Amino acid sequence: xxxxxxxxxxxxxxxxxxxxxxxxxxxxxxxxxxxxxxxxxxxxxxxxxxxxxxxxxxxxxxxxxxxxxxxxxxxxxxxxxxxxxxxxxxxxxxxxxxxxxxxxxxxxxxxxxxxxxxxxxxxxxxxxxxxxxxxxxxxxxxxxxxxxxxxxxxxxxxxxxxxxxxxxxxxxxxxxxxxxxxxxxxxxxxxxxxxxxxxxxxxxxxxxxxxxxxxxxxxxxxxxxxxxxxxxxxxxxxxxxxxxxxxxxxxxxxxxxxxxxxxxxxxxxxxxxxxxxxxxxxxxxxxxxxxxxxxxxx
Length: 298
Fold this sequence. Notes:
The protein has helices at 2-24, 221-268, and strands spanning 27-37, 44-52, 60-67, 71-78, 84-86, 90-95, 98-105, 111-117, 120-122, 125-132, 137-146, 151-157, 162-166, 169-173, 177-179, 185-193, 269-271, 278-280. It has 298 residues and is of the alpha+beta class. A hairpin with a 2-residue loop joins strand 6 (90-95) and strand 7.
């Protein structure tokens, strides 16, 4: 019996390093780390997209390190429509210089986690350091950097491979490179900035997808234009009819007033036999030439 228990314990001890090495040997097909400084927050927004390599048994539990002063805001997985949806995770748990969180990868699809980390500031200068030390091998590792607004000087170490301007913003991208299991990658960022403006709050730039008639909440002008034209036409017709009715009543009133005045003039008016000027029936003398208009009764 003792011999059996001893054999079982030895076997268990042998299996432990095998399981640990299997976890450490997990490989990612790609890992892309995006850096968006002063985007919608004065801090650095770090987004990490990754996918587990083919051939890794699933489900697999992965654990990632993030800086101790970082604020984890999202862990997500990509659906069949290319949208990232919230994914369950455990943590983050602080330990030493880092904090860790874990998630279970159930499908061979892209995953993402996001966190904010403070920038070092000295007047107009900003500095930031990043370190990938998660232990997993990566077949293709690269970084993307979004230049913030009103930057006068920028330094990225290691140097970027390409620079592209889109929607008024500069994007820097490194060349994809493999990382062996346990290897580290460090990026040092330094730039000077003349303002505290955030990228997301600037009305002059757009980094979201273009807005069109298919954008949720947006109404296509082409679809509503016929209704707008029709509504304007109905309002013009109603306005014209109202004006015509009002003008007709006004004209009719003026005609009645003029006719009444003419009738009144015919009854209450007289003319001077001397100069022909109009006078009232009560007048005895012409107001123009002074001639007598009628004889007084004695």
